[in-house]
Design brief:
Elements (H helix, E strand, L loop, with lengths): L1 E5 L3 H15 L2 H5 L2 E5 L5 H9 L8 E6 L23 H11 L6 E7 L7 H6 L4 E4 L5 H14 L6 H11 L3 H15 L6 H7 L1 H16 L3 H13 L4 H23 L4 H8 L4 H13 L2 H19 L5 H14 L6
Parallel strand pairs: 1-4, 1-5, 2-3, 3-4
Helix pairs in contact: 7-9, 9-10, 10-11, 10-12, 10-14, 11-16, 12-14, 12-15, 15-16
Length: 336
């Protein structure tokens, strides 16, 4: 049987693959009857040979191919150099499709892919041959249901407010979300997960405090910035770590502002900066609207100076950060 699992939600794709494996039978027997191919390089002969090999001491054989559909995407997104036989040539995808359509009954073939367009020629050829499942990134309402289901699976519960806060911090990356839910389950020990638990445990909660401290610094609110600094230090954050995070966030804000000026799209900017968290992107995007390039440059250069003074041993980390915040807060408003 043919299974096609495609989409941007790689976490759900991997879960679907595990379900297919469980449905085949004994995991130990499956280990010796599983073949995995890189679809960017596999030949039809290799694929046919693997699919037609009779399983050893098992009723089923599993063949997994990742990236085969991408070979037939327009623009050849795999990054391979084009060969004399172009990926989009009809005879290639039709030959591969014809071979796949002749799968023996004992073989379960799984094709894994990313964001595949509906017009992909190989996908069109195989659409009626096997089971095609698409896994797009979850939207807000779907993500809420996913979190509730994941928490329930651990035997716990979570308040609606905590669900919303968790989603704000993490976004729709399910790999990260699953890890954070598991940490929250261990932290709460069976009781209901509340907003305070999210702030105490979730990795992005610290980033939220960093963003709040950046706001306070950029807006000359010295008292609020100092209070946030002390809270982060009490939570165990090292001064060197905080300095790195502050510098990184200010740099991201500046880069977003600069790329938006060059008419780059939100998706282009997110990809260019390598931001996997919707929360980080959303906060930095908002701050790029509110602060001038001059003020951002001033704060960024002072952060670098402070980093040098700490690394050269001129100042203790906590003292250096406190002095930095005080000095930035005492300066007059910088013009754009």
């Amino acid at each position: 049987m043919l299974h096609v699992l495609i989409g941007e939600d790689d976490f759900s794709i991997r879960q679907a693959l595990e379900e297919i494996k469980k449905g085949i039978g004994d995991a130990t027997a499956l280990m010796s009857n599983t073949t995995v191919f890189d679809g960017r390089q596999v030949t039809l002969e290799q694929l046919r040979s693997a699919c037609e090999t009779v399983p050893f001491l098992s009723e089923k054989r599993l063949v997994i191919v990742e990236g085969l559909l991408e070979r037939f995407e327009s623009g050849n997104k795999t990054g391979r150099k084009k060969s004399s036989r172009q990926p989009g040539q009809p005879e290639e995808y039709k030959t591969i499709a014809d071979g796949i359509k002749q799968l023996p009954e004992f073989t379960e073939l799984v094709l894994l892919g990313g964001s595949i367009r509906a017009g992909n020629p190989l996908l069109r050829e195989l659409a009626t041959t096997g089971k095609v499942r698409t896994f797009p990134r979850l939207k807000q309402s779907q993500l809420s249901q996913w979190v509730l289901k994941r928490v329930k699976a651990t035997g716990g519960s979570i308040s609606p407010q905590a669900v919303n806060l968790l989603i704000r911090f993490v976004g729709n990356d399910l790999w990260i979300m699953a890890g954070e839910v598991d940490k929250l389950d261990l932290f709460t020990g069976g009781r209901r997960i509340e907003e305070d638990d999210i702030r105490a445990v979730v990795s992005y909660a610290q980033e939220a405090s960093i963003f709040a401290m950046i706001d306070a610094v950029l807006e000359f609110r010295v008292g609020a910035a100092q209070e946030l600094l002390q809270q982060l230090l009490k939570q165990g954050a090292a001064s060197a770590q905080l300095l790195v995070m502050l510098s990184r966030q200010v740099r991201i804000i500046f880069q977003i502002r600069e790329m938006r000026g060059r008419k780059k799209t939100r998706a282009d900017i997110q990809g260019k900066l390598g931001l996997t968290s919707d929360f980080v992107l959303r906060k930095a995007w908002d701050q790029a609207d509110r602060y001038s390039p001059a003020r951002l440059r001033e704060v960024y250069h002072r952060l670098l100076e402070t980093d040098i003074s700490i690394k050269t041993g001129k100042l203790d980390g906590e003292i250096a950060l406190s002095i930095l915040i005080a000095e930035l807060g005492q300066r007059g408003t910088v013009s754009a």
